[in-house]
Amino acid sequence: MNFQDFFNPDRVVDLSFFNFENAITACYYADKDLRVKKVNKNFKGFFPVLGNVKDAYFPDILKQLGVTDEQIQLFEDEIHNKGSVLIPKVKIIIDDKERLFSLLSTKTKNSDFDYLNGIQGQFVDRTNEHELTKQRDSLIEGQLKDKQIIEEKSKKLESLATRLAKYLSPQIYKNIFEEEKDQGVSHARKNLTVFFSDIVSFTDLTDKMEPEKLALIINSYLSEMSTIAIKHGGTIDKFIGDALMVFFGDPETLGETNDALKCIEMALAMQERIEELQGHWKSLGATEGISVRIGISNGFCTVGNFGSDLRLDYTILGSPVNLAARLQSMAEIDDMLVDENTKNLISSEVETEFVKEYTPKGFVRPIGVYKVQKFKSKSNVKDRIRLSHKGKRVEINVTDSSDIRAAIEELKLIQEAYEKQLDKQVK
Q1: Which CATH superfamily is domain 188-384 in?
Q2: Would the pLDDT of 176 be above 70?
Q3: Is the pTM of this model over 0.85?
Q4: Where are the beta strands (DSSP E) in 170-328?
């Protein structure tokens, strides 16, 4: 009499299957002839259409679930020839919805009990995982490792950070992603220089132009102004349609005087760049070109994170913000107005002209308003790359200054094209 004869076969199978009863996967055990002897609760829950599957032929179960003939044949071939099989992507329709499973099965061996020599396997529901990784061409073979999950998440975070960088001023981006301690929702009272600019008669422009050309012009304008603002150390607060708000003094400051001077230097560079690009914008459909008004004020503002639990803006609040916007709206076309505080900070190096005293709504006393003319000495303004050239026979305007090297390469290609054209004429 054999050792196994002293035991109840069904009881031994139940005990061997105990660890799979409460598994989150759909587990089964079949004998060596692929007749199902045991399934766990999740197997019944995953595939209610099957009903009682005891003693059913497992390939027939797969067919009933809608598994393709090729995959069923693969299952049979590999389980018999290799002793194990992994089908990473099995599509099954459940309640009119397609779900995705991995099917893992292997032969079991036991020297004491012949009836434990069979096939043990499980269906792993990969539907949610597949939806989150639509771009992947194939699913991972075998069990996912912690390291692989971390690498996948890291790539997604890097991609997100790259996209997010386009929506934040570089200084703010650095604070969020490079500071070791959480900045929280802290606020501070700081002396800032606030800049506002706005395109004159922009509404008329939007009414006359096609959306595509309008987008080209406004994106070109804002891109060029943003490049200049970042170059001069300004913190870009926001775009409001065609309007641009920049401030100096946070999160980094050179001192209130130098912050104000950097702001003026930036504004003058913007005016110069706008003049350089007039021809380009006119060629796109802005027949009268683009004119901009600028307002600048200086004073104490509250700076920090403002918003709700769902969305925060790192921005500034205070009367200097309102005043800069008011000065911008008061300015003549292509002019720059500053308040008395800013004028006092820059007066040693910048020429200004008194315009008038003005009491803005909400202010208790008149504000001196001044028009900025120029720096008193050219040595006060750092040399910047000229982005236009007008010679006797050639006029060049760089319409996108975000990548100067790319512009140089484009000029080289133009030169090569002209040389080839000349060679053809000579021949």
Answers
A1: Nucleotide cyclase, GGDEF domain (3.30.70.1230)
A2: no
A3: no
A4: 187-199, 235-240, 243-248, 292-307, 312-317
